[in-house]
């Protein structure tokens, strides 16, 4: 074998030594191998201040485990190694290491993809090559070698027989070190105290200073000794039963002593806990919420209701600043300022604050003063609130703004503005200064929809150029998709041509009717105190007329 670079080192950290040597020679550490020429073992006991050379087990520590633990023996090793830059190794193992919970019994897991040329060597030779390789692997991973390895050698001999019988087709686990296992008088325990509230509360609220989780540490009956040469006690043992998720330090503080570790809430709010995060906040995200009262029966699971505990001194069912997201939300009382609701199905029996926001697919609200975005909205009384929706039904209005495709209102007083693209149906207008306008350009959701479709069309055009060159068979499909999207845009732009405003009962004062044409021009009519037939556009060859009025715009030929 040709050695390009060779050098001897004395080191306790083989990996770092090889890395440094490779860097000095402008090479990768992967290009180097090493051989252990000699190993010196050093020990330190409770009666000594420093490590002393201990190559012979004169005190019978290795055979007397109790003595070793009682005297708090620690072991370190120093290696003399030869580092070589060479083309290849005789054996190339593919493996992983299972260090075990307390590092007392690490094992190597050999993969059948390993390259072991056993057919070229005698079994004893392969055994010695594997033993050398195992010790190299142990040393580079900080595992003590040449001690506590009797079981490793026995299993390795058995593996060699297994290998020569052609049975190495699955992963094989072989112990690398048999340390002294810890003996516990009492195992560790994780107590999720906040979950104890879940029997009565699906929305878990906690107070500041409340203990959320207790990790009870294990009580040791006897210490152990691990593969790195250290005593394993309750301070060094990994807390595998403890929480593994990220703890939010802003909302949760940790108190720890020798017996337990407690997680306490720093703020009042709601618990958010999953595999990744643990924090307290006023924002709740859950798949489904039901009543938090203990009297709820199982058959009410489909009649989902949410009652939020107060987070301030107001009497609102949803306190100021609370953000709630759920599949279905039913609020019995009022909604506080700066609160936010998001749901598929939203029902509010009380009133929404003027500074609150709601988002839903289907919304039913008793009294609306806030800002609502949804698909279908049903509002009993609109009191100055704002609504963005596809379809809106309002029983009574005392003012506000509605942006939708289709709007139906029962009784209107004053100062209501309705912007619709398709239809406005009103039963009774008892006041003045109301605006009823057909104009898709004034509806933000339709403008966003139009722009989104435009982007989709551009993306399809780009794709069309590509498939025209490579897969012409897809061209008709993409062209059809583009045409369908353009039809959707045309339906939005030309919606005014088929739109209608209907007011069933006679008007009692001055209100404004406006239709915005595709060109941007507007036909506006100020109403009188009388009954009107439905308002809509009549197209002729030379003009566009607002029926049933004489308002018209000439069309230039």
Concise structural overview:
With 557 residues, the chain is α/β, with parallel strands linked by helices. 17% of the residues lie in helices and 37% in strands.
Secondary-structure blueprint of this entry?
Blueprint lengths: L4 E7 L2 H11 L7 E13 L7 E2 L11 H6 L3 E12 L9 E4 L8 E4 L12 H18 L9 H15 L7 E4 L7 E4 L2 E4 L12 E2 L4 E6 L2 E4 L1 E2 L5 E2 L13 E2 L4 E5 L3 E6 L3 E5 L3 E5 L1 E3 L37 E3 L2 E4 L8 E12 L5 E12 L2 E3 L2 E7 L3 E3 L2 E7 L2 E13 L3 E14 L5 E4 L5 H27 L4 H19 L6 E4 L8 E5 L5 E5 L9 E4 L3 E5 L4 E3 L3
Parallel strand pairs: 15-19, 20-21, 21-23, 22-23, 23-24, 24-25, 24-26, 25-27, 26-28, 27-29, 28-29, 29-30, 30-31, 30-32, 31-33
Antiparallel strand pairs: 1-4, 2-3, 2-4, 5-6, 6-7, 8-12, 9-11, 10-18, 11-17, 13-14, 16-17, 18-19, 33-34, 35-36, 36-37
Helix pairs in contact: 3-4, 5-6
Strand content bin: 35-45%
**Would you count the extended β strands for me?**
37
Low-confidence stretches: 285-315
Average of per-residue pLDDT values = 86
The percentage helix is 10-25%
- Strand order, biggest sheet? 24-25-27-29-28-26
Global geometry: elongated
How far is it from the N-terminal to the C-terminal residue, by CA?
A: 95 Å
Total helix count?
6
Give the structural class: alpha/beta
Cα gyration radius (Å): 39 Å
Mind describing the biggest β-sheet?
Answer: 6 strands, parallel, barrel
């Amino acid at each position: 074998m040709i050695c390009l670079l060779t050098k001897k080192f004395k080191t306790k950290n083989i990996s770092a030594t090889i890395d440094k040597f490779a860097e000095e020679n402008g090479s990768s550490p992967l290009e180097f191998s090493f051989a252990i020429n000699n190993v010196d073992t050093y020990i330190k006991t409770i009666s000594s201040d420093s490590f002393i050379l201990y190559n012979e087990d004169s005190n019978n520590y290795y055979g007397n485990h109790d003595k070793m633990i009682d005297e708090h023996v620690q072991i370190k090793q120093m290696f003399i190694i030869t580092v070589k830059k060479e083309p290849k190794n005789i054996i190339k193992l593919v493996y992983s290491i299972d260090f075990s919970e307390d590092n007392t019994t690490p094992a190597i897991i050999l993969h059948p993809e390993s390259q072991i040329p056993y057919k070229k060597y005698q079994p004893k030779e392969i055994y010695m090559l594997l033993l050398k390789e195992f010790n190299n692997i142990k040393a580079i991973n900080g595992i003590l070698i040449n001690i506590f390895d009797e079981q490793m050698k026995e299993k390795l001999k058995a593996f060699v027989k297994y290998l020569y019988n052609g049975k190495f087709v699955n992963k094989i686990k072989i112990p690398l070190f048999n340390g002294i296992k810890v003996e516990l008088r009492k195992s560790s325990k994780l107590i999720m105290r906040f979950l104890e509230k879940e029997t009565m509360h699906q929305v878990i609220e906690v107070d500041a200073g409340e203990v959320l989780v207790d990790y009870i540490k294990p009580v040791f009956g006897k210490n152990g000794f691990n593969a790195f040469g250290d005593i394993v006690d309750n301070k060094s043992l990994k807390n595998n039963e403890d929480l593994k998720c990220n703890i939010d330090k802003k909302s949760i503080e940790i108190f720890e002593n020798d017996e337990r570790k407690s997680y306490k809430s720093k703020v009042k709010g709601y618990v958010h806990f999953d595999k990744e995060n643990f924090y307290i906040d006023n924002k709740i995200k859950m798949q489904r919420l039901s009543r938090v009262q203990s009297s709820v029966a199982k058959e009410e699971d489909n009649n989902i209701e949410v009652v939020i505990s107060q987070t301030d001194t107001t009497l609102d069912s949803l306190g100021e600043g609370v953000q709630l997201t759920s599949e279905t939300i039913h609020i019995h009382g009022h909604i506080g300022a700066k609160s936010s609701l998001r749901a598929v199905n939203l029902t509010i029996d009380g009133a929404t604050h003027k500074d609150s926001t709601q988002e839903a697919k289907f919304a039913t609200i008793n009294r609306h003063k806030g800002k609502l975005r949804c698909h279908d909205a049903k509002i009993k009384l609109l009191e100055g609130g704002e609504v963005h929706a596809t379809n809106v039904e309002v029983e009574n209005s005392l003012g506000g703004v509605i942006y939708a495709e289709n709007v139906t209102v029962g009784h209107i007083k004053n100062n209501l503005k309705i912007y619709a693209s398709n239809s406005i149906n009103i039963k009774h207008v008892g006041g003045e200064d109301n605006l009823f306008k057909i104009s898709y350009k004034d509806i933000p959701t339709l403008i966003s929809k139009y722009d989104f479709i435009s982007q989709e069309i551009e993306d399809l055009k780009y794709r069309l150029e590509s498939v025209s060159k490579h897969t012409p068979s897809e061209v008709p499909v993409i062209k059809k998709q583009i045409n369908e999207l353009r039809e959707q845009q045309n339906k939005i732009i030309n919606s005014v041509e088929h739109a209608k405003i209907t007011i069933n009962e006679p008007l009692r004062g001055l209100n404004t009717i406006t239709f915005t044409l595709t060109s941007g021009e507007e036909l506006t009519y100020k109403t009188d105190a009388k009954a009107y037939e439905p308002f809509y556009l009549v197209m002729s060859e030379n003009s566009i007329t607002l029926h049933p009025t004489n308002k018209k715009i000439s069309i230039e030929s």
